């Protein structure tokens, strides 16, 4: 569904260049529900904006559902955004129309594309648990309920892929669990691919796969140890839970590059270069041996 290889995004202003993505690789299968985690400034939103067609990549390859987002024409981009992608943002509810009902809000994007499917709009509101509230005006709903209407809206044009940027950023834990359960149900029901960007490791534990981004590169992948474990229904979550539930792998790109965590490099005193040995089974990276010799 999503394929990025060597993806680069450079933001240029008058006298400064920021390399937000510096050759990122990522593949997401059709129907997968996965999360991207990373510190502030690591490039998560930049990646999501490119995948959503809101921003253009600078270089590299990026394709989504057969669309080449590097070469796509502006007119095609409008069609791509309308048909392929659904968005859920942290404060999505702000974009809803308060004087319309939940149902009318869901039908609004359908109107823009010329085909209102009331039965599907109702079905969506049922999926997000608002069957009994669909004729309520938006301002009569709570913040969490409004966020669920926003999720129904994001699905109204039957996109193949849902992109969610901190979707639970401004709601309480119970609502957050509810939203993640909705994502899981919709993912199972219609097989939609879901990509969630978050800081929140507890969310990350509720998806099949987590990809960590560091400095604009995919650095580590966490795969769920037991794919049948339904984490959405699990209570509680401990520190380090991600490691308990998922197995961590370092991402190695096609030409053999990988990222070594800064803490590890500092702990063994590796700066600009290192020594690497292969003993037939393991690859061992240490502080440069020749330099150690020079010091003494
Ligand atoms: N429009 C822009 N112009 C210039 N620099 C930008 C722009 N957008 C993002 N950046 C820079 O690109 C880098 C990556 O930013 P990005 O917003 O993708 O990070 P993030 O991981 O989503 O962070 P956060 O979790 O804080 O939202 C940062 O250094 C940021 O300052």
UniProtKB/TrEMBL annotation:
User: One matching Pfam family, short form?
Assistant: ABC_tran
Span of domain ABC transporter: 2-240
Example GO molecular function:
ATP binding
Concerning InterPro entries, the annotation shows: AAA+_ATPase, ABC_transporter-like_ATP-bd, ABC_transporter-like_CS, ABC_transpr_LolD-like, MacB-like_ATP-bd, P-loop_NTPase
UniProt keyword terms in alphabetical order: ATP-binding, Nucleotide-binding, Transport
Does this UniProt record's set of keywords contain ATP-binding? Answer: yes
Which superkingdom heads the taxonomic lineage of this protein's source? Bacteria
Name used for this protein in its record: ABC transporter ATP-binding protein
